[in-house]
Amino acid sequence: MGAPCLDLAAYDGPRPQAPRPPRPTQKIPTAETGATVLDSFIAGLPKAELHVHHVGSASPRIVAELAARHPDSPVPKDPEALKEFFTFRDFAHFIDVYLSVVDLVRDAEDVRLLTYEVARDMARQNIRYAELTLTPYSSVRRGIPDLAFMEAVEDARTAAESELGVTLRWCFDIPGEAGLEAAEETARLAVDVGADGLVSFGLGGPEIGVPRPQFKPYFDKARAAGLHSVPHAGETTGPQTIWDAIRELGAERIGHGTSAARDPELLAYLAENRIALEVCPTSNIATRAVATMEEHPLKDFVAAGVPVTVNSDDPPMFGTDLNHEYAVATRLLDLDEAGVAGLAKNAVEASFLDAAGKARLTGEIDDYLAAWPR
Ligand SMILES: [Zn+2]
């Protein structure tokens, strides 16, 4: 998601044939926590995340810090009330929470604080590398000068790397609902202003009524400047949107892509061309892109040979985090530890890390698996 999608349609694609209830994964509780062995494996596993939004990653802890800087905000200040505020109820509530956090990011120091604290939450989950989707258009339109925005995120990125061991890269995305003016401004911010950590160019927001091809000139500009193309597509609309993202916008990965399951030719194309899907299971249920978790097409993607990565999208707002998404995927795909490590390696492979960075992180994952159980 990212910017809230106000015009959701129910996923109307075919359901997987006769969905089987997934086999439970190993349910061996550890001593104190009741977590399974696989949960423990996932928690310690070095991971990469490729589809996660900046404002959408603000946890109650971070929101409390931002709210303290802006006492006039209507966001609850009391920790218990804030926790309740953050308990996902429905999509309308998600939008309320999202917009209230947007309202708290008012100056460059808010941007820096949010970015660094998101990295801190990532470090706690052993996320070692993340491509974080920023929507600089929203901040700059609010009056944060473009260079101050870039300086703030770059300062946070440098500090996150040295102090937290989390490597961050940026995707600047167009908030699709804001139209071509936002597209033009986002392309300007990405190409003419730029930031050292910027690797890709995206497109979020609603899909219905926001056709992908109109954004081609802006993606052309970004790609000509060496940025990778990673639009959201096929989350709330059919497979044609994914074809458009590939053919018109040069998509190298697809955000969500859930409706690809309806098009065998598209699945074959994604598999053959190694175009990875950024799958966000809990988000897909929360937004009703997919009706139930048992019907999630993740297993169809894997069966078709499509590279899949697992991601959290807007984690605190959907009551999840990356570790939880790995646990969900583990259940859906009936994975053991080696299979879970394989998912983590998929994300490294599909990332825009350089070859040395990929080799290093893949090596960390292999070493972790080889040393398991500790
Ligand atoms: Zn998203």
Automatic annotation (TrEMBL):
| Residue stretches making up the Adenosine deaminase domain | 46-367
Q: Which GO terms describe its molecular function?
A: hydrolase activity
EC number(s) stated in the UniProt entry for this protein: 3.5.4.4
Cofactors demanded by this protein: Zn(2+)
Instruction: Write out the entry's keywords from A to Z.
Output: Hydrolase, Metal-binding, Zinc
> Do you know which InterPro entries this protein is assigned to?
A_deaminase_dom, Ado/ade_deaminase, Metal_Hydrolase
EC class, as a word, reads hydrolase
Q: Which domain of life is it from?
A: Bacteria
Q: What segment(s) does the record annotate as region Disordered?
A: 1-30
TM ranges: none
Family (UniProt):
Belongs to the metallo-dependent hydrolases superfamily. Adenosine and AMP deaminases family.
NCBIfam families, alphabetized: aden_deam, PRK09358.3-1
Record-given protein name: Adenosine deaminase
Species this chain originates from: Streptomyces polyrhachis
Where is the organism placed in the taxonomic lineage, from the top?
Bacteria, Bacillati, Actinomycetota, Actinomycetes, Kitasatosporales
